[in-house]
Amino acid sequence: SRRGEATFISRQSDPEGLTATRRIKTVHLISDARTGKGISAIMTAHSTPIAGMMLAAGACFLLATHWAAGVTALLAAFGFYSNRWMLAPKSGKAPHGSRTSRKGQRAVSVSLSLIFMLVAIIAAILGMVGI
What we know:
Strand content: under 5%
Number of helices: 4
Low-confidence stretches: 25-30
Helix content: 55-70%
Shape: elongated
Structural class: mainly alpha
């Protein structure tokens, strides 16, 4: 087969003992690990502008006396801005016996971004309804 193409051999394994399907999954995991730093950079770069927009939306909702929408938008703004703290570069050394996982921090950061995106959508719906 040509380079870069996947070949499937049913019920056979390669020299390392992995089936063709398992080999493809392993390749995807390796490429996903390489993109982790890119995800971190994208989230760090875009979390502050999104937080600023949510802060402005929250202020507008509060000025329009849509209290629930305003508080929800401000909560979403804080959530997006907190990604900057979570993805900040390490400073100093960790205390003896403790571990920090950058992969785990990225996973939590992505999860929180999705949750706060849902909170932002809820704030928009509350604002449209006028609550």
